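Input/output pair, single chain:
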Amino acid sequence: MILLPPLPWLLLTACGGDPPTPDLAHSAAVPVVSSVDHGLDDYGCDAAGQRGTGSPFWLDNDDDGYGDPDVEISACSPPPGTSRRPGDCDDSLASVHPEATESCNGRDDDCDGQTDGAQAIDAIPWIADGDGDGWADPSTTRRACVGEAGWLPRGAEVDCDDGDPSVHPGATERCNGIDDDCDHVIDGDEAADVVTWYRDADGDGFGDPMTTHVSCEAPSGWVEPGPRADCDDSLAAVHPEADELCNGFDDDCDAMVDEDDALDAVPWYADTDGDRFGDPGLSVISCRPPQGYVSSPGDCDDLRASSYLGADERCNGLDDNCDGRVDEDQSVDVATWYVDDDGDHFGDPSRPRQACKLPQGHSATAGDCDDTRGSVHPGSVEVCNGLDDDCDGAVDEPDADDAFTWYPDLDRDSYGDASDPVDACYQPSGHVSPRGDCDDADPGVHPGASEPRDGIDNDCNGVIDDAPPGG
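Output:
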């Protein structure tokens, strides 16, 4: 609430009551009270001023008919210097009020909240320069008291595309499908970047520099010149970006034919020893083989004709087949060796191994029938031990070094007949080791038997009926 300075009319009471209090929040509309219904006048008071609230009035210092909306007074009659209409936005200037004419003067003359707006009586017309290139679009206008960025005074030269700052009268025409200089001609031959086109008769995308045409767009059958021109415009396969092939033509237009970088050029390898295999570390790439070169690599020793990839490997201390190994077990002249676990220089025939050189723990001679015993091998002395010592397939045969001689004992008197001996490691059935029985059919006749006088040599001492000792 705003308090007014003391004025004579403010000392009066409204309708016989207390002095009115200004109400800044009161509506700007003036209430009209029916005196018929309430017995009150148009100011909201009765004739005696004894009842009623009074009407709102607003301070009008500049006397322009509109009061200051921030200074409101309620009264039963109009106080001097007030108005029943609020809305004055500057109560110090009579030219400023809601019904005033807006002018370009830096003030809100008509109190509409805008200063020097487009409705100002002396506002001037402007045309838009949307792209900021200094040329305006006359179809987009506005009125304003002062100029702003993006607007030019009416009368500026017309821009044919106000959305592109590169397009305006006087711009450089270019080959871009746009009327850059606003002369109503698009991409004329005078464009700054006009192209000289080459005739491309063979349709390979490269043209003949001897036949040219100037324009922005390429005519049908013409191309833009590249770094190099077509050296034969009658062959579509011949042009600067073609692959060079080994075909007798200059395919890529570099003035060389079938050079070493041809797409189908192949490597060739030096063959010094003439074995038709070349040294892989000495090669050239070309369309045709140089003298002394072959197409197959794989020679690991190009000074020996017997050494090349796939040759027969031999036990000679050399890598004949060029597989990176020397004298491997697959050599054509490889020897067979046998595992000799017991170190008796005879190997196990069931465990052979082929190698160029004697492997550790092997023997060149097979035939060992028990490679866990060094005493068992071919040529060993056979003994009576339950083993096949000499590896002849028989165990403890009669010729064993420690075999016994046994004699048949048909009469079972424990003395054998010396005329029919048998050698064996173990006693054969019906045989004994003592011999000397002179009659193997009579168990009473044998060495040591008693000698009765019966006409028989009972004790087999060669004397018949000899007297007993001491007889």
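The chain is about 0% helix and 15% strand. Residues 1-37 have pLDDT under 50 and may be disordered.
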